[in-house]
Design goal:
Layout lengths: L2 H19 L1 H9 L3 H27 L2 E2 L11 E2 L2 H16 L4 H22 L4 H17 L11 H24 L6 H19 L3 H21 L11 H18 L6 H11 L1 H16 L6 H6 L6 H7 L4 H21 L5 H32 L10 H13 L1
Antiparallel strand pairs: 1-2
Helix pairs in contact: 1-3, 3-4, 3-9, 4-5, 4-9, 4-10, 5-6, 5-10, 6-7, 7-10, 7-12, 8-9, 8-10, 8-15, 11-15, 11-16, 16-17
Length: 401
């Protein structure tokens, strides 16, 4: 973007933010029943401005993502985009929300996750330390009542719900981080997820959850013009701070909401909305464990490989933008499937989940089949370590049988 055009864009976004922050404008929009639009526009404008500032700070601090290994970008790129999204989202929430007890837990936990990610972006941390801090953030959620609630009452039921909450939050938090490998992928995916949580909240009469989700949506959309440029590479990345913050916040929103009266439907809806990160983390974990690349939870958390969903789409011939758009389409399809479940029975939800599971199984089968071909001909996916290729081919053969 030329300098003059960039300045014009910044001036316009600054003007929009200042207008929206003016008490008369804010009061008028809220009075006209336009709070959804107000939060969306405010989040967008603040995130757009904060991202421009974050780029300058990242260059000064040398918080840069250097090309190499599994990374697909070609030049050093500023990190700290996640800090910009966090700043915009936090500002919108602080200015427009009365904090519920549960929201306090999500806010404190998400802040801890962001700080952990910022430190990790500046100076890589060991896996055990990251896991410890993430577990502390989960403990904060549980302390503030953000817990999956569907098991029978009693000590064992409570303990089981705590464990499942930890698995859910840690899984989604790290899954979103794992998917942050292409321009616009993690932030765009988070925006789609937030959009469907917004619509679902409106359908179920949860205005509070809807406003919270639309604030996150606006913040993600304000970051995307810097991160997903169709003809140019991204000018800034989320960093681990941003991707884990988005994953943690979405996981918290999923648990906070009451998405249906039926317990199973209430679980199925967020599972569908967050289906892409769930599929990616599950598929890569199965393959990595099966091939012996990962042998511990710490190894799972710290392992970096070129075997995620988006990497495989690239390796079968899709361009970077097409790979991102393909994942967007799949996420939208899953979100629409979740919307269909409004007022559905547990049986309906089970059938929709089975349908999604079959489609993801076919995608996984296809990727394994193509992966086997690449392993034999080009060695695209795995490093040349003894036994790994043979083990992967055995998995592929078993899948085909």
């Amino acid at each position: 973007m030329p300098i003059s055009e960039r300045r014009t864009t910044l001036i316009i976004s600054s003007g929009v933010a200042l207008v929206l922050l003016a008490p008369p404008i804010r009061g008028a929009m809220l009075g006209w029943g336009m709070r959804w639009l107000y939060l969306l526009l405010l989040g967008f404008s603040l995130a757009f401005l904060a991202t421009s500032l974050a780029k300058k700070v990242a260059w000064k601090l040398e918080a840069l993502d250097i090309p190499g290994g599994r990374k697909v970008h070609e030049s050093p790129t500023p990190l700290l985009g996640g800090a910009a999204i966090y700043a915009a989202f936090a500002a919108v929430v602080l200015l427009n929300f009365e904090f519920s007890w549960e929201l306090k837990g999500v806010a404190i936990g998400a802040t801890l996750i962001l700080l952990l990610g910022l430190v990790d972006d500046l100076r890589p941390l060991p896996a055990w330390l990251k896991l410890t801090v993430q577990l502390c953030a989960v403990g904060i959620l549980i302390r503030f009542g953000v817990v999956l609630s569907f098991l029978p009452e009693g000590p064992l039921g409570t303990l089981g719900e705590w464990v499942l909450t930890a698995i859910w939050v840690l899984g989604i938090t790290n899954a979103m981080n794992f998917l942050d490998g292409l321009d616009g992928l993690a932030a765009g995916l988070a925006a789609i997820n937030a959009l469907f949580f917004t619509v679902m909240a409106q359908q179920t009469g949860q205005q509070y959850m809807g406003f919270l989700s639309v604030a996150l949506l606006g913040s993600c959309l304000g970051f995307l013009p810097h991160n997903f440029r169709l003809k140019k590479p991204a000018s800034i990345f989320l960093g681990d701070a941003g991707s884990t913050f988005l994953g943690f916040t979405l996981a918290g929103i999923a648990v906070m909401g009451q998405w249906a009266e039926e317990r199973f439907v209430n679980i199925a809806i967020p599972v569908l909305i967050l289906g892409v990160p769930i599929f990616d983390v599950t598929f890569t974990t199965v393959v990595r464990v099966g091939t012996g690349q990962v042998r511990s939870f710490g190894g799972w958390l710290s392992y970096t490989g070129r075997d995620h969903f988006h990497h495989r789409l690239l390796d079968i011939g899709l361009g970077r933008n097409w790979a991102v758009l393909t994942i967007y389409v799949i996420s939208v399809w899953l979100g629409l499937s979740a919307l269909v479940l409004k007022g559905a029975t547990d049986t309906d939800a089970l059938l929709v989940l089975i349908q999604a599971g079959i489609i993801f199984f076919l995608i996984g089968y296809f990727m394994l089949f193509v992966e086997k071909r690449f392993v034999r001909t080009e060695g695209t996916f795995l490093p040349d370590e003894p036994g790994e290729r043979k083990r992967l081919e055995e998995i592929c053969d078993a899948a085909r049988r």
